[in-house]
Amino acid sequence: MLTISKPLSAGQAQSYHAKEFTAKEQNYWSERGVIAGEWQGRLASQFGLAGAVSAEDFAKLVIDDEIETQMKRALDGIEVTEDTLCLEAIERVGIGGSFLTSKAKDTFKHIQKETTELTVGDRNTREKWLASGGRSIGEKAREKVKEILETYEPEPLDGDIVKKLDEIIENAKRNLSKKQ
Predict the structure, then answer these.
(1) Which residues, including other chains, have CB under 8 Å from residue 44's CB and lie 6 or more apart?
(2) Distance between CA atoms of 139 and 147, rounded to whole angstroms?
(3) Helix, strand or coil, per DSSP, at residue 162
(4) How far apart are CA 155 and CA 9, in angstroms?
(5) DSSP for 29-73?
(6) Residue 31: what are its φ and ψ, rounded to 5°?
(7) Which long-range contacts (CB under 8 A, 24 or more apart) does 144-153 make?
(8) Cβ neighbours for 159, distance < 8 A, ≥ 6 positions apart
């Protein structure tokens, strides 16, 4: 029978998957005791996902997303105007001064627009990175995947879509009951 449930949160989907597909009592989903899943479709292919699904694939997606965000930002270019050049700050700070001090507050005004925040990458020096624990990008990506799975809540479906889905389900139920 066809059943369509309300959208699940990522955490609920993870729990459902663990219960229904990876549990020993649900072994009809497995091949020789291994739960087999494969990436399918053009979107998976565009992300370089092929073959068997593994937990590491999701960490790879998080890393790829961050790289793509950085690339898009770089391709947008840097806005160059009198305001963004901060000529007054250059005069205030002077030759050899630091543009990361209170004398150059203009730098901070524009930096948010010109950079993107890293969630798994790190812009620190190696020494600072090691001092902060030296976690690899893979470790950070796996933590981000876990956070997403635990906290993501799907957007509710538009009422018209819910109505159309209800109609499809009712039609399917009627057609199935006629066949029985």
Answers:
(1) 50
(2) 12
(3) helix
(4) 9
(5) GEETTEE--B--HHHHHHTT--SB--HHHHHHHHHHHHHHHHHHH
(6) -115, 115
(7) 144/59, 144/62, 144/119, 144/120, 145/55, 145/58, 145/59, 145/62, 148/10, 148/62, 149/10, 149/11, 149/13, 149/14, 150/10, 150/11, 151/10, 151/11, 152/9, 152/10, 152/11, 153/9, 153/10
(8) none
Q: Rounded CA gap, 145 and 98, in Å?
A: 38
Query: What whole-number distance in Å separates Cα of residue 29 and Cα of residue 38?
Result: 13
Q: In this structure, what token pair is assigned to residue 37? A: 């899943």
7 pLDDT band, cuts 50/70/90, is low
- Chain segment 41-85, per-residue pLDDT in tens: 888 888 888 888 887 888 999 999 999 999 998 898 888 888 888
Amino acid of residue 140: K
CA distance 175 to 158: 26
pTM tops 0.70, yes or no: no
Cα separation, 149 vs 79, in Å, equals 37
At residue 77, what are phi and psi to the nearest 5 degrees?
80, 180
Residue of 99, 120, 122 lying closest to 111 (CA atoms): 99
